Amino acid sequence: PVVLVLSAADPASPHGAALPWPARPGVRLERRAGARVILLDGELVGYVNRSEGNLVTFLPAEEPGRGNAARAVAAALAAPVDRGDRRALLVPRIDGGPPESSPLAPYLLERGFTAGFRGLLKRPPPDIDDGAVAGAEAPRG
Protein backbone atom coordinates (compact mmCIF):
# COMPACT_ATOMS: atom_id res chain seq x y z
CA PRO A 1 0.00 0.00 0.00
CA VAL A 2 1.07 3.56 -0.69
CA VAL A 3 0.57 5.95 2.22
CA LEU A 4 0.95 9.69 1.65
CA VAL A 5 0.70 12.54 4.12
CA LEU A 6 0.06 15.79 2.32
CA SER A 7 -0.82 19.31 3.23
CA ALA A 8 -4.57 19.65 2.85
CA ALA A 9 -3.82 22.67 0.63
CA ASP A 10 -1.37 20.73 -1.58
CA PRO A 11 -2.52 20.62 -5.22
CA ALA A 12 -1.82 16.86 -5.14
CA SER A 13 -4.62 16.47 -2.59
CA PRO A 14 -7.92 16.49 -4.46
CA HIS A 15 -10.08 16.71 -1.33
CA GLY A 16 -11.75 20.04 -0.75
CA ALA A 17 -10.98 21.14 -4.32
CA ALA A 18 -11.84 18.59 -7.01
CA LEU A 19 -13.51 16.19 -4.55
CA PRO A 20 -15.83 17.23 -1.74
CA TRP A 21 -14.86 16.32 1.80
CA PRO A 22 -16.66 13.23 3.08
CA ALA A 23 -19.67 14.13 5.21
CA ARG A 24 -18.91 14.00 8.92
CA PRO A 25 -21.51 15.58 11.26
CA GLY A 26 -20.06 18.14 13.65
CA VAL A 27 -16.66 18.23 11.95
CA ARG A 28 -15.40 20.97 9.69
CA LEU A 29 -12.70 19.87 7.28
CA GLU A 30 -10.80 22.65 5.56
CA ARG A 31 -8.25 22.95 2.80
CA ARG A 32 -5.90 25.16 4.81
CA ALA A 33 -2.19 25.49 5.39
CA GLY A 34 -1.15 23.40 8.37
CA ALA A 35 -3.94 20.85 7.98
CA ARG A 36 -2.86 17.46 6.66
CA VAL A 37 -4.54 14.58 4.89
CA ILE A 38 -3.49 10.94 5.07
CA LEU A 39 -4.13 8.96 1.91
CA LEU A 40 -3.94 5.19 1.54
CA ASP A 41 -3.68 4.17 -2.11
CA GLY A 42 -5.29 7.51 -2.99
CA GLU A 43 -8.22 7.15 -0.57
CA LEU A 44 -8.68 9.60 2.29
CA VAL A 45 -8.22 7.74 5.60
CA GLY A 46 -7.27 10.59 7.94
CA TYR A 47 -7.34 14.35 8.40
CA VAL A 48 -5.43 16.34 11.02
CA ASN A 49 -6.59 19.91 11.53
CA ARG A 50 -4.05 22.70 11.46
CA SER A 51 -3.86 23.05 15.23
CA GLU A 52 -3.38 19.26 15.54
CA GLY A 53 -6.23 19.25 18.04
CA ASN A 54 -8.31 16.62 16.30
CA LEU A 55 -7.62 13.65 14.11
CA VAL A 56 -10.58 12.70 11.93
CA THR A 57 -10.55 9.19 10.51
CA PHE A 58 -12.27 7.72 7.48
CA LEU A 59 -11.74 4.02 8.08
CA PRO A 60 -13.60 1.44 6.01
CA ALA A 61 -16.42 -0.31 7.85
CA GLU A 62 -15.26 -3.84 7.05
CA GLU A 63 -12.10 -5.85 7.67
CA PRO A 64 -9.44 -6.26 6.42
CA GLY A 65 -9.69 -2.76 4.96
CA ARG A 66 -10.43 -1.20 8.35
CA GLY A 67 -7.33 -2.68 10.00
CA ASN A 68 -5.13 -1.87 7.02
CA ALA A 69 -6.30 1.75 7.02
CA ALA A 70 -5.86 2.06 10.80
CA ARG A 71 -2.31 0.70 10.54
CA ALA A 72 -1.56 3.17 7.74
CA VAL A 73 -2.85 6.14 9.76
CA ALA A 74 -0.89 5.08 12.85
CA ALA A 75 2.30 4.59 10.81
CA ALA A 76 1.87 7.95 9.07
CA LEU A 77 1.46 9.75 12.40
CA ALA A 78 4.41 7.96 14.02
CA ALA A 79 6.82 8.34 11.08
CA PRO A 80 7.96 11.96 11.64
CA VAL A 81 8.86 11.18 15.26
CA ASP A 82 10.54 7.89 14.32
CA ARG A 83 12.62 9.68 11.66
CA GLY A 84 13.59 12.46 14.05
CA ASP A 85 11.73 15.15 12.09
CA ARG A 86 9.61 15.89 15.19
CA ARG A 87 10.44 15.59 18.86
CA ALA A 88 6.95 14.37 19.77
CA LEU A 89 3.36 14.21 18.58
CA LEU A 90 0.29 14.48 20.79
CA VAL A 91 -3.08 13.21 19.57
CA PRO A 92 -5.57 14.78 22.00
CA ARG A 93 -8.79 13.82 20.17
CA ILE A 94 -9.83 11.30 17.55
CA ASP A 95 -13.12 11.79 15.75
CA GLY A 96 -14.15 14.32 18.38
CA GLY A 97 -13.70 12.00 21.35
CA PRO A 98 -11.00 10.78 23.68
CA PRO A 99 -8.31 8.95 21.70
CA GLU A 100 -8.20 5.92 23.97
CA SER A 101 -11.82 5.07 23.09
CA SER A 102 -11.15 5.18 19.34
CA PRO A 103 -10.81 2.00 17.27
CA LEU A 104 -7.50 3.54 16.12
CA ALA A 105 -6.03 3.52 19.66
CA PRO A 106 -4.61 -0.05 19.60
CA TYR A 107 -2.80 0.71 16.35
CA LEU A 108 -1.30 3.92 17.75
CA LEU A 109 -0.19 2.09 20.90
CA GLU A 110 1.38 -0.58 18.68
CA ARG A 111 3.40 2.19 16.96
CA GLY A 112 4.79 3.49 20.25
CA PHE A 113 2.22 6.06 21.37
CA THR A 114 1.55 6.10 25.10
CA ALA A 115 -1.63 7.09 26.92
CA GLY A 116 -1.50 10.19 29.08
CA PHE A 117 -3.92 12.62 30.62
CA ARG A 118 -3.85 14.86 27.52
CA GLY A 119 -4.16 12.11 24.90
CA LEU A 120 -1.89 9.68 23.10
CA LEU A 121 1.72 10.82 22.88
CA LYS A 122 4.46 9.60 20.57
CA ARG A 123 8.05 10.22 21.60
CA PRO A 124 11.19 8.70 20.13
CA PRO A 125 12.62 5.72 21.99
CA PRO A 126 14.82 6.81 24.89
CA ASP A 127 18.48 7.26 24.00
CA ILE A 128 20.55 4.90 26.12
CA ASP A 129 23.58 7.21 25.92
CA ASP A 130 21.88 10.12 27.69
CA GLY A 131 20.79 7.97 30.62
CA ALA A 132 17.07 8.07 29.88
CA VAL A 133 15.11 5.38 31.66
CA ALA A 134 12.61 3.36 29.64
CA GLY A 135 9.08 4.06 30.82
CA ALA A 136 10.01 7.27 32.63
CA GLU A 137 7.28 9.88 32.57
CA ALA A 138 7.85 12.77 30.21
CA PRO A 139 8.03 16.26 31.71
CA ARG A 140 4.72 18.09 31.75
CA GLY A 141 4.54 21.58 30.50
Write the layout of secondary structure elements.
Blueprint lengths: L2 E5 L28 E5 L2 E6 L6 E3 L7 H19 L5 E3 L13 H6 L2 E4 L2 E4 L19
Antiparallel strand pairs: 1-2, 2-3, 3-4, 5-7, 6-7
Notes on the structure:
With 141 residues, the protein is an alpha+beta fold. Helices cover 18% and strands 21% of the residues. It has two helices and seven strands; from the N terminus they run ββββαβαββ. The protein has helices spanning 65-83, 105-110; strands spanning 3-7, 36-40, 43-48, 55-57, 89-91, 113-116, 119-122. The strands form two sheets. The chain has a four-stranded antiparallel beta sheet with strand order 1-2-3-4, covered by helices on one side. It has a three-stranded antiparallel beta sheet with strand order 5-7-6. Strand 2 and strand 3 (43-48) form a beta hairpin. The protein is globular, with a radius of gyration of 15 Å. Mean pLDDT is 87; it is low at 128-141.
CA(first)-CA(last) distance: 38 Å
Stretches where pLDDT falls below 50 for ≥5 residues?
128-141
Instruction: Estimate the global geometry from the Cα principal axes.
Output: globular
Spatial strand arrangement across the major sheet: 1-2-3-4
Average predicted local confidence, pLDDT: 87
Percent helix, as a range, is: 10-25%
Number of helices: 2
Rg, nearest Å: 15 Å
Tell me what portion of residues adopts beta-strand conformation: 15-25%
- Give me the secondary-structure category: alpha+beta
Please outline the major beta sheet: 4 strands, antiparallel
Topology order in helix (H) and strand (E) letters: EEEEHEHEE
Number of strands: 7
